[in-house]
Specification:
two-stranded parallel sheet, 36% helix, binds uridine-diphosphate-N-acetylglucosamine, alpha/beta, 7-stranded parallel sheet, 13 strands
Length: 321
């Protein structure tokens, strides 16, 4: 038997994406076999450059709504045990223009995958949920039970993620992690769904002023990508206190509210940028404040964020440079 076939296997969907590519790297570092799928709707080959030739990594250019995806992959990789489902339509504006397609990819494909994972006795299925599942709920910090069928979702993206998370958590092996604002290396500053940190870093390093939408006093809960990766491992019982089977819906954030203005000032300081700030009109559909209640996931799994915002900004800046 080859070494690869003896390793427990993980499927990572959306492997060419920003977060998933970090997750693949980490799983390979734990000596697991990793099968990645991506259809390059928004992922990039370059994100996989560091592991594409790794002997324990296997890539398939598949969409997640391909029928019998897990059964097909299991034929070639019978040790697949864990599924990390990150592939999605990630652009909120795109979801507004294409609600049907967003439902098909972000909800229906997830529902089919988790059902297949249960039938095929996967030990763990961890899904990338989103803070968007809370709509514009301003009861802060946001507790998991606040998102409900009554929540007014601001986009098909938020609605599809909500129903997908519900469906995942009903499966015996299903965990949905509602991530707040993720940032870090490989986040694309040029896409329509670019996070504010990737945009600010890009502007600051090009010596341009940082653009603030509104007064800058809106707040977000920023979580660094390596903490997100560790959250996935904890949810799957690969690290921390979880003993499988484990299921449920959990927030993953730093649990700290940071104003966009303070964020901008920190980035200007770290880059010695003297171009300062440009205040533009408030962005349509923006929520004012977002903050995760993080105790549930921490108590259940032993996970806690390790990277401070300042440290995370340093790391993101050195990558971008
Ligand atoms: C995030 C998600 C979005 C999700 C939403 C729901 C990202 C990239 N987006 O949006 O998919 O639907 O949470 O909770 O994670 N800003 C500026 N200047 C800029 C860019 C942004 O001032 O150049 C401001 C925005 O107006 C906003 C804040 O920064 O107030 C954060 O923006 P962004 O990073 O796009 O994330 P969210 O709006 O939180």
């Amino acid at each position: 038997m080859s070494k690869t076939s003896a390793l427990p296997g993980c499927l990572v969907t959306g492997a060419a994406g920003f977060v998933a590519s970090h997750l693949v790297e980490r799983l390979l570092s734990l000596d697991l076999e990793v099968v990645g799928v991506d259809n390059f709707f928004s992922g990039h080959w370059e994100n996989m450059a560091s592991f594409m030739d790794h002997p324990h990594f296997h890539f398939y250019e598949y969409s997640v709504n391909r029928p019998h995806l897990l059964a097909t992959l299991l034929k070639a990789h019978p040790r697949l045990t864990y599924c990390f489902h990150l592939a999605a339509i990630v652009s909120v504006p795109y979801s507004i223009e294409h609600p049907q397609e967003t439902m098909e990819v972000n909800y229906q494909a997830t529902a089919s995958l988790v059902q297949e994972a249960s039938q095929l006795a996967f030990e763990s299925f961890v899904f990338a949920g989103s803070a968007a599942e809370y709509g514009n709920d301003q009861r802060l910090p946001l507790e998991e039970q606040y998102a409900s069928a009554e929540t007014e979702h601001l986009s098909p993206y938020g609605g599809a993620k909500f129903y997908a998370s519900q469906c995942v958590a009903e499966a015996p092996c299903g965990v949905a992690l509602r991530f707040f604002n993720i940032y870090g290396p490989r986040q694309d500053p040029a896409s329509p769904y670019s996070g504010v940190i990737s945009r600010f870093v890009d502007l600051a390093l090009s010596g341009k002023p940082l653009t603030i939408f509104g007064d800058g006093l809106q707040t977000r809960d920023f979580i660094y990508v390596s903490d997100v990766v560790e959250a996935y491992l904890h949810a799957a019982g690969l690290r921390g206190a979880v003993v499988l089977p484990f299921r449920g819906i959990y927030n993953v954030g730093a649990g700290k509210a940071v104003t966009v203005l303070d964020l901008a000032k920190s980035i200007l300081k770290l880059t010695d940028n003297t171009e300062s700030l440009t205040f533009l009109g408030e962005r349509a559909g923006d929520i004012r404040h977002s903050l995760a209640a993080v105790k549930c996931f921490q108590n259940e799994t032993g996970w806690s964020p390790q990277i401070s915002l300042l440290d995370g900004l340093h790391r993101t800046l050195s990558w971008a440079r």
